[in-house]
Amino acid sequence: MIVYTNSLTDVTAEHLVGGFFVGWPHPPSPADHLRLLRQSTAALLARRADGLVVGFITAISDEVSCAYIPHLEVLPEYQGQGIGSELVKHLLARFQHLYMIDLLCDAELQPFYARLGMRPITGMLVRNFDHQSCEPLSLPPEPGERP
Ligand SMILES: CC(C)(COP(=O)(O)OP(=O)(O)OC[C@H]1O[C@@H](n2cnc3c(N)ncnc32)[C@H](O)[C@@H]1OP(=O)(O)O)[C@@H](O)C(=O)NCCC(=O)NCCS
Questions:
Q1: pTM of the model
Q2: What is the DSSP string of 46-67?
Q3: What CATH number does domain 3-131 carry, 3.40.630.30, 3.30.70.260, 3.40.50.720, 1.10.1760.20?
Q4: CB 46 within 8 A of CB 2
Q5: What confidence tens digit (pLDDT) does each residue in 3-59 have?
Q6: Which of 20, 32, 33, 109 has the most other CB atoms within 10 Å of its CB?
Q7: 21 CA distance to ligand 1 centroid (A)?
Q8: How far apart are the C-alpha atoms of 75 and 21, rounded to whole Å?
Q9: Which residues line ligand 1 (CB under 6 A)?
């Protein structure tokens, strides 16, 4: 049985080892995956009875006007069972009070999102592939900051 939850309290990196970020040359480690879940405005998980996370979706939002959905993924062996649709539906409902809810996707996925009430539009992006793994950076000090 799959349970949907926005609680991260008992989630550890060990629950995120199922094999997410398929096809990413430099995937985030489970520890960095947990960090990105915790630091999102909203994160929703699909979990197995033993706690393993089999799907997740995140959003970043100002909670005033807009929300952006950067991550949605279901483990390959759990795809095609409605989990991805359920995660999107929950998140769209969570942010229904906002003007904009945006995401980027490949054209082949547009019918999937259209079925859930979204519509296609063009967009622009930046991708810093050096930072794809999400490893914490040691940033240069800001002007006036002690090194
Ligand atoms: C996209 C994704 C989240 C869908 O999750 P899911 O649990 O399989 O979704 P559902 O079971 O609710 O819906 C499956 C439907 O999505 C369609 N779909 C899924 N991936 C697709 C793809 N890459 N291209 C076209 N259609 C796709 C399926 O054909 C299926 O349609 P059907 O019901 O008519 O057969 C999942 O395939 C996934 O994790 N993909 C890899 C990561 C990814 O692409 N994330 C989206 C980033 S924008």
A1: 0.93
A2: EE-TT--EEEEEEEEE-SSSEE
A3: 3.40.630.30
A4: yes
A5: 999 999 999 999 999 999 999 999 999 999 999 999 999 999 999 999 999 999 999
A6: 33
A7: 14
A8: 9
A9: 72-74, 79-85, 103, 105, 108-109, 112
